[in-house]
Structure formats: C-alpha cells, structure tokens
Amino acid sequence: MLSTDPTDPTREPPLPPPPPREPDVVGHWNWAAFALTPIWAAFHRIWWLAVLSIFFGLPLGILAGVKGNGWAWENDRRGDAIAFDHRQRRWSRAGWITLIVGIVIGVIAAAYQDRAAAPAQPTPAAAAAPVPAPAGWRVEWDTASGFALAIPDTWTRVELAKDRFPASFDSFRTIHPASAKANRSILRSYVGYGSFALVEPGADRSAVAVVYGYPDPITAGASKRAATEARSESRQNSAVVSVGDLLPIDTPAGQGWGVRAETASTLVCTTSFLGIGDRVVEVDFYVLRSYEDEHRTVQKTVIASIRRPAAI
User: Fold this and answer.
1) Can you give the residue range of the structural domain that contains 175?
2) Total domains, the chain
3) Are 158 and 279 in a shared domain?
4) Looking at the structure, do residues 159 and 178 belong to the same domain, yes or no?
5) Contact call for residues 91 and 72 (beta carbons, < 8 A)
6) Which of 40, 144, 155, 218 is the most buried (most CB within 10 A)?
7) Short-list 205, 155, 160, CA closest to 178
8) Residue 225, class by beta-carbon neighbours within 10 Å (0-12 exposed, 13-18 middle, 19+ buried)?
C-alpha cells in the first residue's frame, strides 16, 4: 500500500503536471490573418507584420494565413488554448466573410465601370441605313455576309472566291496589266479567304482594299480579339519591320479596332475589324508608305461608309 505521509521516505514523488496543451488551430489556415492582415496583426501585437503588410500585402498576407495562428499563440498572455481556438475561429470566419464581400463589391464595381465606359451602341437603323457614297464613289456588296461599303469609282473589284478568282483576276489584268502584276501576290494570298478586293489602278502607287465579311454571329469583344490576333501574327512575320498599337474605330454603324504594320519593302497594311450588330467585317488596306498620307482619307471614308443593310 502506497504511503500518503509526506515525511515517509518510501513515498513516491508526485507526477509532474502535464505540459500546456497547444491550440488546435496552430498550423491551420487563418482567413483573418490573410484578408485582414494589418488589423489582425495589430490586435495580436505582431507589430512587424502589421507594419510590413501595408507595403507587402499579398505575400505577407499568404504567409500570415499559414503561420499566423502560431505567431498569435506565442504572444498570447492568457495561455488558455481552448479560449484561443474559439477566438481564432471567430477571427477566421470574419476574414473569409470580409473577403467574399470584397470580391462581390469589386465585381459589381468593375461591371458598372465597364458599362459606364462603354461607347453607346449604334441603333439597328444606323447599321442598316443606306451606304453613304460621296460623289464619284459607288457602293460594293459582300452578298455572303450582307455588308456593303462605298469605294471610289476608279477602283476595280476582283473576286476572291476560289471558283471566281481566276476569271475575275484575268479580267482585271486585261484592263490594268501593270496594276495586276504589281498586286498579284497580295490578291493571291487572299484567294479562298477574302470576299473581294478593290484595287486602285496604277503600277507605281496602286492601293488595295481586301474586304471579308464574317458570316457567323460573333460575341462581344470579337473585333478587339481579332485585331489583337492580327497584330500578333504581324509581329511574327519576318517581312514586317514595325507593328503599331491597337487603335479604336468608331463609326455611325459600329465600333471596332485596327492595327498598322509595315514591311521591309515599305508596304503598309492597315487591318480594320468593325463590328456591326452581331457580325464583323474585316478590311485590309495595302499602300506604299510614300502614298499612305494621301490614301488615309480614302481609308477613313471607306470604313465610315460600311453598313449591313441586308440581314442574314
């Protein structure tokens, strides 16, 4: 029988008290330490974290989310693990609620800002209005997509469909042999892709406008995506020496984007994508750099004239 007399030398010494229990939340993620780092750190007297998180928010926020509970426990003066667990769980709950509310508010604010900044969309009546053709100009149609535009009377149309290009190009070559020879490579590169080309007669200063109306419905932002892709392709082309930034296009019938690229042979290509309703039309202008300024007014007039009177 064990002795209970404290003076008995045979009495076994009492067992040491158990070490204090570590809180369950130590080593677990803390949403408050992540989302509310400066506030949470100051409340738990982790002053270096409270100050540095103001300047290095996200990296220190992630680190605090992982290690914050351990840091807070080291500074805890009460030493009550159960109470500490309860406090940090409440803090973490407040953190993820704050994070979710902030994300929702941010999405709503961004959507409102985009809506406020978006240009007013043209009315269907404007998109389908008659094509404005100045004196000395005529209207050309892309029957597959319903687009129409104005072009100077002196320019010649060349069909680019595979089954219509040979005869169309031969006819053009018969009338303007020098211009056909100068622009053959441009026209052939669009066969089966473009709808038609409009060529200004003349060998030394001839300009070409290739028109392609996309027949399929498109989604919002398609014009900018197409222009971005065209710019990327131009930058990868070894013959291109310079590519400009995307430029916005605003016409009575629709909005779009354009990009300018120049080759080593001083040939300038200005590619424009214009969205009208649920369709996009692409117009590629080719002209020598020495005549670019002279043709700029023609290009702007052509783009501004584009309409889609025929609904597909």
Assistant:
1) 124-305
2) 2
3) yes
4) yes
5) no
6) 40
7) 205
8) middle
Q: Which residues contact 299 (CB under 8 A, 6 or more apart)?
A: 209, 270, 285
Give the H or E element holding residue 106. Answer: helix 81-117
Q: Are 121 and 61 in contact (CB under 8 A)?
A: no
Q: 């406020």: which residue's tokens? A: 116
Neighbouring-strand partners of residue 148: 141, 307
Half-sphere exposure at residue 67, Cβ-oriented, CA atoms within 13 angstroms? 9
Reported pTM: 0.59
The owner of tokens 């926020």 is 61
Angle at 31 between CA 29 and CA 34, to 5 degrees: 95
Give the number of other Cβ atoms within 10 Å of residue 240's Cβ: 16
Which amino acid is present at 304? A
DSSP 217: -
Please list the alpha-helical segments (H only) found in 118-196. 124-127, 165-175, 177-189
Residue 225 lies in a domain: yes
pLDDT at position 139, please? Answer: 92
Are 307 and 253 in contact by the 8 Å Cβ rule? The answer is yes
Query: Are 105 and 200 members of one domain?
Result: no
Averaged over successive runs of 10 residues, the pLDDT of the chain (312 residues) comes to: 57 60 82 87 87 86 86 80 85 88 88 58 53 90 88 93 92 90 90 91 80 82 90 90 92 91 91 89 92 90 87 44
Give the 3-state secondary structure of residue 146: coil
